[in-house]
Amino acid sequence: MKKSNKKFILLLFALTIISFNTLSQIQYKVAGNVIDTLKKPIEGVSIRLITDKDTLRSTTDFKGNFSFPKVSHNKFYVVVTALGYKSFASVYELAVKDKNTILETIILKAEPIRLNDIDVNVKVDPIKIKKDTIEYNAGAYTIRENDKVEDLLKQLQGIEVDSKGAVKAMGKKMTKLRVNGEDFFTSNVEDYIRQLPADIIAKLQVIDDYGDEANFTGIKIGEPQKMLNLVTKPGMDNGVFGNADATSATSNAHTINANGNTWRKTKQIGFGANYGITDNAFTKSDNNGFNGSLREKLSKELSINGNYNLSNNSNNSINSNYIETFNPQGTIYDLRESESNAKSFNNRIGFGLNGATKKNFVNASISGSLGINTNNSLSTSNKTGFIQQDLFSNSGVKSNNPNLSGNINWSRKLANNRRSLSVGFNFGTNGSNSNSSINDIIRYYNATTSILVKDSLLNRLVANNTSNANIGGNIQFANSLKKLNDSSGYSFISLSYRFSVSRSKNLQTTRVEDQIGNSFVVDSLGQNYVSNFINQTISLGFNANKKKISYSFGVNFSPSIIIGEYRITGQSLRNYQLNFSPSANLSYQIKDNRNLNFSYNGYTSSPDFNKLQPVRNSNDVQNIIIGNPNLKASSNHSANLTYNQFGLKSGLSIMLGLSGNFSFNSAVSNTVFLRDTLNSLKQQTTYENVNGIYNIGTNYSIDKRLLTNKLSISFDGNVAYSHNVFYTDNILNQSSGINLSNAFRVELNQKKYSFNISTAHSFSSNTYSVLNQNIKNIQILALDGGASWIPTKRFRLNTSVSKSLNFGYNLNSGNPLLVNLGLNTAFLKNNRLNLSVQANDLFNKGSLFRSTITNNSITENRTRFISRYVQATLNYSINQFGKKTSRFTTPNYNESF
C-alpha cells in the first residue's frame, strides 16, 4: 500500500473517532424553578442532577431559579433538598431535539426536622420579616391546653383580635385565610381561628396579597389586602374537628351551637348550626341559622367550592343618641330615643371554580341570595336650642331583596412565559320591593317661651320598587422587559381596559291619609326615574421584582357618563366625567428582619345618582333633599408607609405606619333652614363640590420580649389629624379633629399562669369654624388587668378588672369599674368535655358608648343592655389531626426553620 494511502486511511479513521465522540457529547441546557405551597420562590435550595456518568450540583437564586448549562445525557435524575421542606426526586427523559428545556415548576412542602430526645438551646427567632410577609414562629409563644389559634394570635406583635374574632394587622383587617398555602373552607378568618387548635400550628404568616391572578401573572398593581396563612406541623395537614356547646345566662339568654369539619388534602366539608334566644328588659332576640361549605380538589390543576348560608333573626333593641349640630344661626341639641324590632330571613348560595396549570389560570364564581326583612320602630326626637320641636315617629317597613351575581377570569402565559393575557367578565342584578307605613307627629314650641304653639300629624304609605343590573369586563396584556430567568430580577409593562354598564330603576309611590282616613297619592312625595351609568378605564402599568426590592406604578384614565330620566316631571340628566388617577407600590428588604413598604393609590369616583338628581326627595318631611346635576367627580388619594424591624438578639420589635388621605372635588351636603307653611323651620339639603378634606395619621407598636419570649412589654398607639369642609346655610365652614390613643402593656405568659396589665389613654378634640371656634373634647383613661391560673391541665381560673374614666360626654356615661371572673374545667379523655362559668360585671357598672363626628354634628350613642350576669357553657369538642389528637407531645426543640 502506498504511503499516501496509509496516511489517508489513518486520517479518515481519526475523523470517524472524533465525529463519534462529538455525537456522544451532545449538550443539553436544563433549567427550572422551585417554589413553596404559597407559590413563593425558595432561595438556596440544593439541586442535584444525576446521569449515568456524573452528578451536577446547583442552588436556586432568590427567585427560586436554577440551571445546568451542560448536561451530557437526555435521561437524568433530579433530587431537590432544602432545610424545613420535604425532599423531591423525579426522573426526566428529554427528546433528543430539545436542547433547551425548562422543567415543570417544583413545589416543596414544609416539613420541619424533628430532633427526638435532644434539647437544642437555640434562641428562637419569633419573627421573620420579608418584603411582603411577616412570619411568626408559633414555637416562640406560649401555647396551653385547649388554646385556639385566636389565643395564639393575641400574643403576636402588631396583631389585634376583637371580641367578635375580627383580626387586624397594623390596623388593616385580615380578609383571607389559608392553611399551608391553600384556601381553607370559607377562607374567612373569623370562622376558623376559634375552631383550629393552636398546638397544630408551626408558623403564622401575614402576607400582603394582591390576589390569585396577580400571583399567577406577576402583575401586582393596587393596594394589597392582608392575608393570614397558617403553616401546620408535620402530619397535621388533615383531620376532623368541631364542637357542640350550650350556654345559659341569668340575663335570660340561651344559645346552642354546633359545627363539624372534615379536612383532607383534597377535600374540605364543613357545616354549622346555631340557635339563640334572649328576653330581658332591654333586648329581645330570637336567632337561628345554618351554614355548609364544600371545597374539593378534583385534580392537581382544578378545584371547586360551594357554600350555603341560612339565617333567621329577630331583634329588639333600645338606643339613645345625643346630637349637637352647629349652625351660624345657633346650636341645635337633639336627644333621640328609639326602640326597634327587626326581623330578617336570608338565604345565600354560592359556587366557585379555580384552575391553574403552568400556562393557564381560571377562576369563576356565581352566587345568589334572597332576603326578606321587616322593621318596626318607634322613635322620639326632642330638639332644643335654635330649633325647639318634638318629633314622634312610628314606622313599619317590609321588603324583599333578591340578588344574583357572577364572574369569570382567565389568564394565559404566552411566548415562553414572557407575556401574559388576562380576560374577565362579571354581571350582577338585584332588586328591592318594600312597603312602609310612617306616622309622624310634630310639635312646635315658641323659641322664647318654650310654650307649645301647634302640632301636625302626617300619615304616609310608601311603596318602593327598585331594580339594578350591571355587566362589566376587562382585558389585560403584559410583556416582560427581561428574561424570566435573569438573575437581576424581572419586570413587566402592562396595558389594560375595563368597562362597566349599569342600569337602575326606582318607582316610589306615596299615599297620604287625611284625618278621616281617606288616602290619596301625592306626586311631590314620589319618584319615578331610570338611570344609566357607563364607565371605561384604560390603565398603563409597570411592575418590577428584584432580590431586595419590588415596585410598581401605573396611571388610569376613566371616562364616564350618567344619564337619568324622570317620568313624573319629564326632566332629564346628563353628567359627563373624565377621571385620571395614578398608583405606586414599593417593597424594600433593607436587611434581614427589616423592611420598608410604601403604597400610593389615586382613584376617582363619580357622584352618587341620588346626589345628582334635581328632583325633590321628600321621604323625610323635615329634611327635603334636592340633587345637583352639575356635580363633578371627586378625586381621592391615599398613601401608606410602613416600617418593620425585629432584632433576634435584642428581642425588640418596632412596627411603624404613616398614612394620609386627601380628597379634591368632594361632594358635600349644604343644609339650609327654610320656613314651612306653618312658619316653622325645616331643613333642605343640596350638594356642592369642595376641596380641603384630608386626614393624616401614624400608628406604632414597640414590643420588647424577655424571659425567653414569655414576658412582653409594649407601647403602642396612634395619632391622627383630620380636616373637613362643609356647607351650612350656604356658608362654607371647616372643622378639624385631633385624635390621640396610647397604651402601655405588660404581659407574662407561662404554662401554669399568665397576667397582663395595661393603661390606655385616648383624647379627641374637635374644632369648628362655626360659633367662634367651638371646641368639643372627649377623654377616656382606661386601666385594665387580667390573670389566669392553670394549676392542672383540666382546670383554669380567669379574672379581669377594668376602670374607665370618661370626660366630655353629655349623656351620663359614668366611670365604670368592671370586674369579671371565670373558671373552666375539663373532663373525659383528651379534655373533650369542658364546663365554663363566667360572672360578668360583678358591680353592674357596664355601659356601651360611642362618639362620632359628621360635618358640623357630634353624635353620642348609648346602647342599653344588661351587663351583669352569670353564664355557664358546656362544650364538647373533637380535634383529630393526622393520626392522633391535637393533644400530641410537643417536640423538645424550639428552633425556627
UniProtKB/TrEMBL annotation:
Pfam families to which the protein is assigned, alphabetical = CarboxypepD_reg, OMP_b-brl_3
- Source organism superkingdom: Bacteria
Signal sequence segment: 1-24
* InterPro entries per record: CarboxyPept-like_regulatory, OMP_b-brl_3
Q: Where is the Outer membrane protein beta-barrel domain?
A: 413-876
Q: Which UniProt keywords apply?
A: Receptor, Signal
- Is the Acetylation keyword given for this protein? no
Protein name per its UniProtKB record? TonB-dependent receptor
User: What are the leading ranks of the lineage?
Assistant: Bacteria, Pseudomonadati, Bacteroidota, Sphingobacteriia, Sphingobacteriales
